[in-house]
């Protein structure tokens, strides 16, 4: 491994770079220094503004942006970074007053609902306290019911289902539960499930259906 270097300045103003070889004189007890590489710089201008021109072996030079030009020259050199100007990109906008609609590949067809031909009907017999469900003229199923008791008679006529609700409470009779409610009138008459269907008039005007039948 090489020993550290020492810089010695002579009276003439030159700079001498010496390197220790590690050899020592055992007789005198002192270490002798053998110069391995000697570099000498002489001033070019008497004013001492700059040094140049290596007289002995040329020194290796290393260049880097923002660092020194050479390893032994104390003149910093910064290379300017040149950025190329980019031409602005022009944006083009396309206006269309008549947008094109996609062409239909096939003429649209109308498929009628099969149930519309023979809609389901519920016929409630107040005298029999029984409900029958028909699909067209075909009887699907029957069930017992409980209509309105005396003073709360269930109205007769032909009604359409106005709306349906899975969980509903009466806003007339103290929030009584009316699951699977199917509204017939806006005055409070509906079909709904109930735990009490005695197969006789017992409600406040609604038609009570068994819990197993009402979801149908």
Task: Give the helix level as a range of percent.
Answer: under 10%
The assigned structural class equals mainly beta
Which CATH class of the domain at 117-210 is shown?
Mainly Beta
User: First CA to last CA: what distance?
Assistant: 100 Å
- Could you give the order of strands across the largest sheet? 10-11-12-13
Strand tally is: 13
Q: What is Rg? A: 55 Å
Taking pLDDT < 50 over at least 5 consecutive residues as the criterion, the unreliable ranges are 1-57, 59-72
- CATH homologous superfamily placement of the domain at 117-210: L,D-transpeptidase catalytic domain-like
Which properties best describe this structure?
elongated, mainly beta, disordered N terminus, three-stranded antiparallel beta sheet, 216 residues, four-stranded mixed beta sheet, L,D-transpeptidase catalytic domain-like, single chain
Give a verbal description of the structure:
Helix content is 2%, strand content 25%. With 216 residues, the protein is mainly beta. It has one helix at 114-117; strands at 5-9, 15-19, 24-25, 30-31, 41-43, 51-54, 120-125, 130-135, 138-144, 164-165, 181-183, 190-194, 207-210. The chain has 1 helix and 13 strands; from the N terminus they run ββββββαβββββββ. The chain has a 4-stranded mixed beta sheet, with no helix packed on it. The chain has a 3-stranded antiparallel beta sheet with strand order 7-8-9, with no helix packed on it. It has a two-stranded antiparallel ribbon with strand order 1-2. The chain has a domain at 117-210: Beta Barrel (L,D-transpeptidase catalytic domain-like), CATH 2.40.440. The longest helix has 4 residues, at 114-117. The model is unreliable at 1-57 and 59-72 (pLDDT under 50).
């Amino acid at each position: 491994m090489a020993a550290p270097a020492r810089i010695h300045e002579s009276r003439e103003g030159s700079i001498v770079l010496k390197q220790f070889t590690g050899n020592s004189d055992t007789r005198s007890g002192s270490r002798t220094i053998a110069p391995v590489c000697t570099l000498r710089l002489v001033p070019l201008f008497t004013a001492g503004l700059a040094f140049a021109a290596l007289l002995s072996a040329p020194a290796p030079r290393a260049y880097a942006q923002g660092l020194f030009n050479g390893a032994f020259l104390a003149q910093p050199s910064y290379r300017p970074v040149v950025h190329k100007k980019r031409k602005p990109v022009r944006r083009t906008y396309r206006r269309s007053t008549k947008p094109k609609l996609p062409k239909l590949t096939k003429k649209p067809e109308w498929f009628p609902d099969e149930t519309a031909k023979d809609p389901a009907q519920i016929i409630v017999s107040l005298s029999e306290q029984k409900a029958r469900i028909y699909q067209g003229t075909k009887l699907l199923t029957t069930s017992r019911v409980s209509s309105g008791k005396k003073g709360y008679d269930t109205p007769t006529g032909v009604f359409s289902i106005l709306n349906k609700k899975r969980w509903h409470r009466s806003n007339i009779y103290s929030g009584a539960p009316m699951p699977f409610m199917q509204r017939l009138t806006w005055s409070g008459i509906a079909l709904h499930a109930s735990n009490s269907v005695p197969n006789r008039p017992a409600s406040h005007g609604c038609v009570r259906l068994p819990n197993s039948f009402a979801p149908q």
